[in-house]
Amino acid sequence: MLNDSEKKRFSKETDRLRFLDGASLEMELFNVSHGNLWFKVITPEHREAGLYFAGTWLMNCPTVMHEIRLRQANEVETERTMSLLNSELIQWLRKEDLYTIDCQEGIYSIWASTMEFEWEYDKSNNYVELLLQKPLWKNGPSLQQILLNT
Q1: β-strand partners of 73
Q2: What's the predicted TM-score (pTM) here?
Q3: How many domains does the chain have?
Q4: Higher pLDDT, 104 or 2
Q5: Bridge partners (DSSP) listed for residue 29
Q6: Given a cut of 60, is residue 3 above it in pLDDT?
Q7: In a shared domain, residues 106 and 127
Q8: 4 pLDDT band (50/70/90 cuts)?
Q9: Could you tell me the residue range of the domain that residue 18 belongs to?
């Protein structure tokens, strides 16, 4: 059962994702070794963006989804996901890391340590180039910056 603080955080997080309502998602990349899962987002206004998950532990979704509503998983969905996991994995599942995607195709789940959204979607899909340029941590240097300074 969620306490009042968790309910407020859950509601705030779900509201934060509402701007994606009605968009379509197309999977661009899934890198198993690093758990990187990238989607191209196409909004109802036909604007393109990128939705990125890192540290993906579980992905239960098709490669293309229409008229989505992305939100944090509720308590029942979290319990359902936990029932699918072995006891060693259950200890690592944090409620805030489990996302639910309601869409035309059904209801799906993604369990990932990090989710990031960017309006500046790189259409070239140059995976290595993007990894080199992205900050390694919030407000930190990119791998490219580190390599150039060594």
Answers
A1: none
A2: 0.70
A3: 2
A4: 104
A5: 38
A6: no
A7: no
A8: low
A9: 4-119
